[in-house]
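Hi there,

I know you've been waiting on this one. I reran it after we fixed the sequence typo, so this is the corrected version. Both the input and the resulting structure follow.
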Amino acid sequence: MTPSPRRRGILWPLADLLFPPGPDGARSPHGVLPPLLIVLTFVSGVVDAVSYLGLDHVFVANMTGNVVFLGFAIAGDRSLSAPDSLLALGAFLAGASAAGRLRRTTGAARMFAPLVAVQTVLVGGALALSTAGGGPSGVIALLALGMGLQNAVVHRLAVPDLTTTVVTRALTGLAADPWGPAPLRRLVTVVALLLGALAGALLTLRHGAEWALALAVALLGCVVCFRAREAARERP
């Protein structure tokens, strides 16, 4: 890491909080991505609230839960739908596979904004479909496809402790490791997912899934804009 020039805006102080500069002032190579990943974690909670509470008890971001739900449904739990769980899993894998193919020729950091932009369009499509009264299958497929894209690029970025969907390891590390920057990141991740789920649930239960999806679209759009602006500043 090398010392970075003076930065402006709200993202850099947040990035420095999650990844403190070294004694020589050198900043993390992840730049402003960490706070943007926290926003994506919040969005994961929002869309899972929509899918679980409004789309027949299925997850579109948390595939661990989906695999478990699939087992329950096969065992005979009639409150769960095996076809919907399979649809979400298939769409998620399709999105992750598509993003994986793109990464072979382009770096993950460079593709972050374009892929999140595509995710924004997909969630916007789910919002439009839901508003038009479309069936849950199309909404599930679009949301899971977008979350597959998100998880693939986040996986490739490999920013420590910021996976945007899974918090089991974060909770384990938070409990097992001494306090420091890494446990702070894990705590922020868990809180972001919790608050996203809370916001998504409140909007879905009180006003309808459309409001929660609109929030997700707005936040994803902000992530794209902030990342594109910082990328433009970094160009020589």
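Quick highlight: The chain is about 75% helix and 0% strand.

Best,
R. S.
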